Amino acid sequence: MDIHGRLNKNVIPRRKFLGTISSALALFAIQSAGISCKPRKKMILSFYLDDTNPSIVSSEAFRQFTDYCSSNGIKGESSFIPGYGGKSILSDPDPNETDYIEFVKQAWTKGIDTHMEIMTHNTLFNFDTGTGNEGGIHEGLWLHEPSVATSEYSDYFTRIIDEAGKGGIKYTGLTWPGCGCEACTKRYSDLKQNGPLKINQAVFDALLTLADEGKFRNRVLPIFYEASETEYGIHQRAARGKCGVYDLMPNAMDHFGIWENSVERVNPDYYITEDGKSGIIIKHLKNNAPYCMWYMHWQGLNPEKGVGWEAFKTVTRRINKYLSDKVIWMRPGDIVTSYHDAGGWNFTNDL
Length: 351
Ligand SMILES: [Zn+2]
Ligand SMILES: [Zn+2]
Known about the structure:
There is one protein chain. The protein folds into two domains: about 30 residues, no CATH class; about 300 residues, Alpha-Beta Barrel (TIM Barrel). Helix content is about 35%, strand content about 15%. It is built from 13 helices and eleven strands. The chain is globular, with a radius of gyration of 23 Å. The N terminus is likely disordered. The site of one zinc ion (ZN) has 5 residues, from helix 8.
């Protein structure tokens, strides 16, 4: 082949070129011709799991969950709420709590990130007495209060991080704990008078500084706030150099029993049907979405009493059967770090 022949071959449009020969031959020919050939693009799969605690079921259930994730290559996130039971689990833990702390510490190595869903998922924690406040504002609402200063958030987050650190647990981000109590509902509706509800910017500023100081496992943090199947996306809330804070919105809901542990709220077909042809994962794949991410609740998902556990395993089997070459599981912390470093979703072209 003369020099002109090689040049001509190089300028054949890739699509047409691929249409003329088998794909294995085409790949070899493209590589020989020096045309860059990117690996197949995959859609990211992930989830977050709220309200995880060792009091409604034994800590063994959490170990079972993380082992299952690990053996199936599943990656996601699960909350660690040290003061969920009213006092810190790190102070004077019983044997079940001691096991739980150990299993949470191991979770990251099994593919599961760990978020603060704040200290109690209830009233603010009093670190001086070691118990949750009797009354007063709930943590989720407190994150929205416009008058709270960055330093107040920073102090509170630092104490939670230090508390988890006593058990060797590192946090990767923050999840907003939802609450439908009367006081929260009323105040949220008051705040909505001034526009769409939003977390105080000081929360993100405080988190960014703590990430910058190395207080979290990663330098880029995901925040879980709102979710939408259609109006989803990733939103930068604070950034400085290599550090960032991102609201990563789930684009799929909880159909694994929710916090009510209700059989009416279990539906594996919502994610992927038995024939692998429909469901929200397939829909996002067809729409070329960069990710499909859902949320779950420990009450419904846990392997001991959760009505959603079998459905979760069913969904996993279907994903493995139909989508193993089309999807890639990622921890939320790795998703936002990759996004931050690449300055967009273009990193998914190389997955
Ligand atoms: Zn929650
Ligand atoms: Zn409340």
